[in-house]
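Possible regression after last week's pipeline update?

I re-ran a chain I had predicted before the update to compare outputs. Posting the input and the new output here so someone can diff against the archived version. Not blocking, just want to make sure nothing changed silently.
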Amino acid sequence: MAKKSVATLQTGSKRLTKAIKMVKSPKSGAYTFVEAIMAPENVNEWLNQK
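New output (post-update):
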């Protein structure tokens, strides 16, 4: 159910990653996209949480 799309962003000396996951709404059943920018080490943890 989760769509995994990861892009690497570089800002100065920091390395950041933008992760996008597709989440199904419990009320309507429609899918929405949730985006977050974080360190590359945290991406898999973020994608696995519900």
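Follow-up from reviewer: compared with the archived run. Helices lie at 43-48. Marking as no regression found.
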